[in-house]
Amino acid sequence: MQYCFGVDIGGTTVKMGLFRTEGTLVEKWEIKTRTENRGEAILPDVAASLKSKMEEKEIGHLQIAGIGIGIPAPVDDRGIVQNTANLGWGYKEVKREMGELTGLKVKAGNDANVAALGEMWLGAGKGQKNMIMVTLGTGVGGGVIVNGCPIVGENGAGGEIGHICVNYEEDETCGCGSRGCLEQYTSATGITRLARRRLEKNSSDTVLKKENLSAKAVFDALKEGDKAAEEIVEEFGTYLGHAMANMAAITDPAVIVIGGGVSKAGDILLKYVEKHFKERAFFANKETKFVLAELGNDAGICGAAKLIIG
Amino acid sequence: MQYCFGVDIGGTTVKMGLFRTEGTLVEKWEIKTRTENRGEAILPDVAASLKSKMEEKEIGHLQIAGIGIGIPAPVDDRGIVQNTANLGWGYKEVKREMGELTGLKVKAGNDANVAALGEMWLGAGKGQKNMIMVTLGTGVGGGVIVNGCPIVGENGAGGEIGHICVNYEEDETCGCGSRGCLEQYTSATGITRLARRRLEKNSSDTVLKKENLSAKAVFDALKEGDKAAEEIVEEFGTYLGHAMANMAAITDPAVIVIGGGVSKAGDILLKYVEKHFKERAFFANKETKFVLAELGNDAGICGAAKLIIG
């Protein structure tokens, strides 16, 4: 079977890709995610779009190895979702429903885990079997790949990197209800929060302005040699580097991939994280490599396809 | 093939077990570990012992599925050890050498990972696929089982639970060279250290005596209602509970198994760990169960046999 589909379901759009099973993306496209009526149209819409792509390309059922799907929620190893924050779904047997809609083999996984798998297959982790991917966006997500497979866990909640506690003294509450989560210091909003706290202490020695703080503004100022920005990025790097050292002691990865919007700051970001990682890494993990993600928004469809290819 | 061997190589003795592949221990025995001359006799001694057991039981080569071996060192997925602390071995191709000595299929793994596998197969984690085992002995070791397999990692150093950092303010150095490792607070020696520190502040309000402090003395005093002992166990439980909450966010286990000499304190220990775990666990992990290990010193030979049975 020469082809498979990778599907990445998000709250606004569903991204889809047609892949050759040896590892090339033939074509990608997207459709709107219709979340109304508890998201009942989402899977039928995807099935219809894949079917019309097969007709357009004159590809028959027997040429398709299957459909991999990434979903923004915990997904267990039977392809079942208990709840979603932004698709409208409650309990949903994604694997079974999509199988019935298409007659094809289906596998489903959490979107962050699937994106990590994509980076391992075709991106920054190419050729590796043991990898951590951290996605620094509005929140902090991630996926941990062990011996070629993402850690799914008992409740489909493996790889919740953003919610490991890195500061037991924190008094502000994280979106998850706890305090001191990695997400509170290293997401785009977390970096902005660190910057705001710094400027509350002293805002006279920096080009940063309280009115338009952002993670990008902080890294831009750092590149211009701003000392306050450097303090903020040191703090960010300390939290992320130390958290990665603890994760490495548990999963012993070959490479740690940093992705998401914040990672657009570039290699300078890696330098600060790696420095603090080395301070605390177990001796067997000191040489773990840090790299930036390469696939951007395509990581999800690539990893979803890889679920099928295995 | 009805039988397999489980071998657990330690610094003083090698424990061995003959198992039926459906999961019963037929017989166990042990021999001395001869570590002199860079441990060159260890594997030949084991091979000879297994051979004489086969002769005694009139079991032929074709009835043996293979030999699983647990080793007190990182072991990569090719069954290669780079170095050992207490066997005398440097670089050693354990899987290849043992295969040549016996003509049987061989698999090798780290002893703590293998013990975790044993508890999952026949002990406290029976029927589970996702499990963390923490062994609280002289040091702190452990194994993390994901989807039925131990996390080995890129350097065979997966599951180094004792060396995640839980206190960035610590000024005493851990055996690994870092500071603030879980092992410094939750091993038998770590608990003794916490007790010593407590008595240095105030030793007038407790039955504990500086001269004969031990983890056992602390838990015995706790059971008699000693307040200072309770403070010490609270501190122990805080470090271990919070560390397990962070590990659960990454690996999402069904159950966390606590073993090693310290766990002989019994269920009271679990109560203190579980309380602090719940304070910090990600919502998907709040219901994770805590249980005591069941197999004691047999966990190693059981898990080694399970490496073969798969």
TrEMBL record, chains A, B:
Q: Which UniProt keywords apply?
A: ATP-binding, Kinase, Nucleotide-binding, Transferase
**Gene3D superfamilies, alphabetized:** 3.30.420.40
**A biological process from GO:** glycolytic process
Which top-rank group of organisms is this from? Answer: Bacteria
**Coiled-coil boundaries:** none
Cellular component, GO, one term: cytoplasm
The record's listing under NCBIfam families reads: ROK_glcA_fam (TIGR00744)
- UniProt similarity note: Belongs to the ROK (NagC/XylR) family.
In Swiss-Prot or TrEMBL terms, this protein is called Glucokinase
Organism of origin is: [Clostridium] hylemonae DSM 15053
